[in-house]
């Protein structure tokens, strides 16, 4: 039976050996938005061009747009839950928002493929964008992050993954899409390694070597795994994380790039609140005594189908459709015609 639902980008692909994360801003000079709009229709072809040369290397790219970029490039309607990254916390423990219009999450089993695709993508974008952050991540031993713990264990698996990450009927014009939050964390590794393994395990909530979850009788309510376990209406809500280690030992830079996908930004925002402010307030994530978020961004990831159609979209379409109050009614893409604007 044919399935007409829009195809998601490679959000749910398994974790790879290598990744490049690129965050870029779009030039506000005349004509540059047109370059980016037209590029969005080339993304799939670029991935094919590079990936076909190494068919077993699992090259993929997920491309997302920030809230301001969406308005600039594509206008209304806007994905229902797309908004700028919301800062939480205060003082030294703060999830900061940093500039970012486009996110590229490029993955493969070999870094050369990630590198080639990133180069091709940026080459096409030219001076229409400025790269404000670029991180080359690697798989650290048995899927460990930079603090030495296995990362990703409690990710959703199999058929449940799409249910947690891919937009469905709740926002039909954007079905097949997803939301992604990224944060680049730098660790004070000397201080972290000054802790005993037992102290680190209480902070994460799992055993370091075996990755087994600590028993509830000893796991603190402020452990990372406790604070990031959340429920809605009695049901656990999961997100999909593809974190990667990165760093430059010579510069004493040791980091974990956090990337979390979800069907709405809400669960990730709730987890951030629990980590940075605490649940209850004050009962915060002690991992943050050793880790500092230096970037923060929220992006909408269109489906493959929508990404392909976006170049035809006119952000300045006249607001002349009486059926869609407050929206730019005259959209250029059939599937979105007349869809009400979401805030
Ligand atoms: C310094 C950055 C971070 C590091 C080093 C880190 C590390 C870890 C580790 C080692 C685990 C346990 C294994 C696993 O289930 O994956 C974990 C679990 C988890 N983390 Fe993080 N994490 C970081 C940031 C975040 C952020 C910012 C979020 C969400 C906003 C988050 C959400 C989660 C979730 C949902 C789990 C699974 C909890 C469970 O069900 O037990 N993490 N993280």
From TrEMBL:
Protein name: Dyp-type peroxidase family protein
Region described as Disordered: spans on this chain: 311-343
PANTHER family from the UniProt entry: DEFERROCHELATASE/PEROXIDASE, DYP-TYPE PEROXIDASE FAMILY PROTEIN
Pfam families linked: Dyp_perox_C, Dyp_perox_N
Alphabetized UniProt keyword annotations: Iron, Metal-binding, Oxidoreductase, Peroxidase
Cofactor: heme b
Cellular component terms per the entry's GO annotation: cytosol
GO terms assigned for molecular function: heme binding; metal ion binding; peroxidase activity
Segments forming domain Dyp-type peroxidase N-terminal: 9-139
Taxonomic lineage from the root: Bacteria, Pseudomonadati, Pseudomonadota, Betaproteobacteria, Burkholderiales
Domain Dyp-type peroxidase C-terminal span(s) in chain numbering: 144-305
Protein family per UniProt: Belongs to the DyP-type peroxidase family.
């Amino acid at each position: 039976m044919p399935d007409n639902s829009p195809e998601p980008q490679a959000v749910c692909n398994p974790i790879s050996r290598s990744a490049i994360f690129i965050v870029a801003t779009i030039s506000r000079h005349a004509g540059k938005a047109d370059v980016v709009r037209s590029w969005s229709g080339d993304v799939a072809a670029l991935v094919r061009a590079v990936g076909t040369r190494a068919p077993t290397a699992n090259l993929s790219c997920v491309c997302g747009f920030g809230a301001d970029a969406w308005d600039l490039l594509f206008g209304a309607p806007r994905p229902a839950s797309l908004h700028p990254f919301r800062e939480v916390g205060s003082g030294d423990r703060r999830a900061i928002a940093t500039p970012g219009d486009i996110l590229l999450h490029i993955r493969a089993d070999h870094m050369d493929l990630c590198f080639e695709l990133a180069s091709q993508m940026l080459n096409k974008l030219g001076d229409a964008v400025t790269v404000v952050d670029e991180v080359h991540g690697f798989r650290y031993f048995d899927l460990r992050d930079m603090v030495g713990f296995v990362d990703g264990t409690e990710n959703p698996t199999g058929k449940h993954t799409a249910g947690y990450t891919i937009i469905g009927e709740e926002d039909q014009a954007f079905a097949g899409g997803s939301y992604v939050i990224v944060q680049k964390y730098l660790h004070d590794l000397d201080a972290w390694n000054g802790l005993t393994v037992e102290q680190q395990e209480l902070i994460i909530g799992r055993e370091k070597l075996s990755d087994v979850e600590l028993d509830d009788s000893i796991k603190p309510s402020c452990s990372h795994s406790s604070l990031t376990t959340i429920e809605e209406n009695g049901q656990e809500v999961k997100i999909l994380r593809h974190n990667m280690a990165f760093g430059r030992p010579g510069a004493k830079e040791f980091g974990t790039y956090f990337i979390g996908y979800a069907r709405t930004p809400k669960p990730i925002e709730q987890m951030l609140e629990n980590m940075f402010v605490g649940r209850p307030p004050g009962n915060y994530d002690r991992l943050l005594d050793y880790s500092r978020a230096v970037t923060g961004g929220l992006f909408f990831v269109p489906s493959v189908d929508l990404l392909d159609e976006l170049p035809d979209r006119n952000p300045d379409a006249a607001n002349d459709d009486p059926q869609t109050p407050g929206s730019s009614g005259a959209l250029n893409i059939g599937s979105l015609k007349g869809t009400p604007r979401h805030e």
